[in-house]
Design brief:
alpha/beta, Rossmann fold
Length: about 230
């Protein structure tokens, strides 16, 4: 069904009411409340104030605390984790569980041009980012306030994880040979920072957002679940 979500839902609700669709299943509603509460509690347990390697729970918990209600968040690629690990205070854009790649930075540029007063945080897997890294030139040329958070594991991470888990450890076509992302950003005149510890995430995110210009953060985040 294609249409404006608010208008379509309002129409569907009106038709349901007209058809006598007011009956509710209390057991289902109770289950949904329990699942929602459990999900929010799980998010709160994943603090970034720890030692060791970064995981994506750390990334999204720190991002939630760093951004304000005026920020726009874009997630791309293997970062479908944004859907289940992030409670957005404002608009969040994502391709869904289909995990389309190579659109995060270009989408962020479009949103930044459309809403110039709002900072944009773009969370992209490294494989996704490399498909559109040339758009750093556009972000730099227009001096757009985009914080580009590259979640780096030197692979198409979710695919590599699944290969290892389900195919006896055989890995085909999912390892990446990446350049020095900070040097790449610098070649476009974009400030950058490499983040390798969970405790460094929040201050790095705050610094990037406060600059109000394009910034790249190379976040070292090993593949989870292998």
């Amino acid at each position: 069904m294609c249409g404006d979500a608010k208008a379509v839902l309002a129409g569907l609700i009106a038709r349901l009411r007209k058809a006598g669709g007011e009956k509710r299943d209390p057991s289902r509603l109770d289950r949904l409340r329990r699942e929602k509460t459990s999900w929010r509690e799980k998010i709160q347990t994943h603090t970034y104030d720890v030692n060791g390697a970064i995981n994506q729970w750390h990334v999204y918990r720190a991002l939630k605390e760093a951004i304000g209600e005026d920020a726009v968040v874009v997630g791309a690629g293997g970062t479908a984790e944004l859907i289940r690990r992030f409670v957005a205070p404002s608009y969040a854009y994502h391709s869904g569980e289909m995990r389309a790649i190579g659109f995060g930075l270009s989408t962020s540029i479009g949103l930044s041009l459309a809403f110039p007063a709002q900072p944009v945080a773009c969370v992209s897997g490294d494989g996704s980012f490399m498909l559109e890294s040339q758009e750093l030139a556009t972000a730099a040329a227009f001096k757009l306030p985009i914080s580009i958070i590259v979640v780096r594991n030197d692979a198409y991470g979710n695919m590599k994880r699944d290969q290892i888990k389900h195919y006896g450890g055989r890995v085909i076509g999912t390892d990446l040979h990446l350049p020095d992302l900070c040097a790449l950003a610098g070649s476009y005149g974009i400030e950058s920072e490499r983040v390798a510890q969970p405790k460094a995430l929040l201050p790095a995110f705050k610094r990037a957002l406060a600059l109000r210009k394009p910034v790249l953060l190379d976040v070292i985040c090993p593949i989870e679940g292998i």
